[in-house]
Specification:
413 residues; alpha+beta; 3 domains; 23 strands
């Protein structure tokens, strides 16, 4: 683990090049784009993509400096478009960037492996600058030409992101992100050179996902012919007060149960999202404080029976008996949901750990590496390794060459 002092020093050192880039140090301009290479330290370890079928548009939901720092550190985008129109390369366009997270489109999952991610400084419900419009239009023109991507395959993160079952939605659901949703507007797409867009959500229509945010779906797939720019309400705030009928998920989405969110109760008590155990007990008047420089896609937490719910249904929703729900018993046994009898779910012991929406990749053996099992996902933070001592270790903190044999691999579906 990194100490607080080292973390602060690393952030201080990283601030210097970030400030220089944002101040206008941009070597290597190309054509009509003011574009520069500012590659993430993760760039060299990311594998090449097997295919490029989609471009996914994101909004930072925060100011430039903090957003660029975390995107650069974690390699969470291919391109970063600042408000002045300058474009930075974060991950090489042919490599995998961890920008889409838990994602699905047309039944295809894990879209990081087949897409380019473009992050624009701004908010999902507010207009971008004229300089960003010009830069994004040219960047899209070039990328669509290089990879032969049709207009309807330029999607928003809010279109493709989906969430696993949680305290409010008992099935995998659309609505995990509102990120980039302004780029679904016909008038905005026209300004960035796009003439077509998807008419509906193919995964909701096919029943693979449920729609958890009808207002979002209406915004993404309705037709608009107005030339006006999207503007909604006051400048976004990182603190929202819960009113009757508004849940923590409505405000924080997939970050609701992470350390990046703080809940300030009416009595003055503050609790981090990863410490809340009863989501139905949060009273109206609670202030939800969202961390400013949050990760683009929080790692799926390991759920624990007794802490996150008393039954399999409460912990894993209606997907508790599927092959993609994995149970790790305290005695070391591992069972998929489809391997268990109905009675087994009634006798699950406390402290059973649960992964929802995961594939059991099997064991690492001689001649069968982590990469052989799950490809470029092997070192993602949300890929888990079950070691011989029953610990579950994330892929972001493990070396492929030093993983013991007989380690079992679990990666997101």
């Amino acid at each position: 683990m990194e100490s607080g002092g080292r973390r602060k020093m690393r952030r201080f050192i990283l601030t210097i090049p970030i400030l220089a880039v944002l101040a206008g140090v941009s070597p290597g301009a190309e054509g009509a784009l003011n574009i520069a290479s500012y590659y993430s330290p993760r760039n060299s370890e990311r594998p090449p993509r097997a295919s490029t079928e989609f471009i996914i548009l994101h909004t930072t939901e925060g100011p430039a400096r903090g957003s660029l720092r975390k995107l650069h550190e974690r390699g969470e985008a291919h391109y970063f478009v600042n408000t002045d129109g300058r474009v930075l390369r974060i991950i090489h366009r042919d490599r995998v960037a961890f920008h889409a997270g838990r994602s699905m489109w047309g039944g295809k999952t894990d879209l990081d492996n087949c897409s380019i991610g473009i992050e624009l400084v701004g908010y999902h419900d507010r207009d971008i600058t004229a300089a960003q419009y010009r830069a994004l239009k040219e960047l899209l023109r070039q990328l669509k030409s290089i990879y032969r991507i049709p207009d309807e395959n330029v999607l928003t993160h809010s279109m493709v992101a989906y969430g696993a079952p949680n305290a409010w939605h008992k099935r995998s659901h659309r609505g995990r992100k509102r990120c980039g949703m302004l780029f679904a507007r016909d008038s905005v797409r026209k300004k960035i050179g796009l003439n077509k867009k998807p008419a509906y959500d193919p995964d909701v229509r096919a029943g693979r996902l449920i729609n958890a945010d009808r207002q979002l779906a209406q915004a993404l797939y309705s037709r608009d012919t107005s030339p006006g720019a999207p503007v909604a309400g006051p400048t976004p705030s990182n603190a929202v007060v819960l009113a009757a009928g508004k849940t923590a998920w409505d405000v924080a989405r997939d970050r609701y149960n992470t350390a990046e969110v703080t809940y300030r109760f009416p009595d003055g008590k503050e609790v981090r999202g990863d410490r809340v155990t009863n989501w139905n007990s949060i009273p109206a008047g609670t202030v939800v404080v969202l961390g400013e420089a949050a990760t683009e896609n929080p790692v799926d937490p390991i759920r624990v029976l007794g802490r996150d719910g008393k039954t399999a249904l409460e912990v894993a929703g209606e997907e508790y008996a599927l092959a993609t729900t994995i149970y790790f018993f305290p005695d070391g046994r591992i069972r998929r949901g489809d391997e268990m009898a109905a009675g087994d779910f009634k006798t699950l012991p406390a402290e059973t750990r649960v992964l929802v929406g995961y594939v059991d990749g099997g064991y690492i053996r001689k001649g069968r590496s982590a990469f052989d099992i799950c490809g470029p996902r092997w070192n993602r933070p949300d890929t888990y390794y079950r070691l011989a001592d029953n610990r579950l270790v994330g892929g972001g903190s493990i070396s492929e060459t030093s993983i013991p044999r007989d380690t079992r691999v679990f990666f997101r579906n």
